[in-house]
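During the second half of the funding period, the structural biology subgroup turned its attention to how the target accommodates small molecules. The most pressing case was adenosine-5'-diphosphate, which had performed well in the primary screen but for which no bound structure existed. We therefore specified the complex as follows and requested a full 3D prediction, including the ligand pose.
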Amino acid sequence: MIRVVCPGSFDPVTNGHLDIISRAAKLHDEVVVAVLRNPSKSSLFTADERVEILAEVTKGISNVKVAKFDGLIVDFCRANDISAIVKGLRAVSDFDYEMQMAQMNYNQAGVETLFMTTNPLYAFLSSSLVKEFARFGGDVAGLAPDPVLRRLTERLVAG
Ligand code: ADP
């Protein structure tokens, strides 16, 4: 049984994330989407909201589970019998940092990192751009799943 993890802030989850998660689910027995709870970083959605949204948008993929974590992802991997971290790479600019992080995680705990190239449709996409464009009235339909679009409208109108 090969269990992998897709870690991130997912504030909020985008179609780029979902593409990586669903492709990873085809290649491994189980994918745990691990939502980073980082109290020192301000987020639009709480960790519980991000978990709830991810659970809703991945409910059609039976081998995807959603969890929350803080601290080191390698500790989360050890505690949950996870053998590899799956990361999406959008551009060369992602690569330097991701490679360094992957080598550190292997050095610290022997946890492997597998990179998947982004679907070119979503290569430009990030949670922060979706938030920024939504905040100023941009059209983000097609960039994030419906539950995110709904909540973005509620949150940004309310906020
Ligand atoms: P972080 O807060 O760690 O930057 P994110 O929640 O923004 O995390 O993203 C989590 C991971 O999802 C990233 O490390 C990256 O591997 C992947 N990712 C994000 N956006 C995309 C995208 N548009 N296409 C492919 N992978 C992506």
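Two results from this model are relevant to the next phase. The helical segments are 15-27, 47-57, 73-79, 92-109, 127-135, 146-158. Residues 8-10, 14, 16-17, 20, 87-88, 90, 118, 122, 125-127 surround adenosine-5'-diphosphate (CB under 6 Å).
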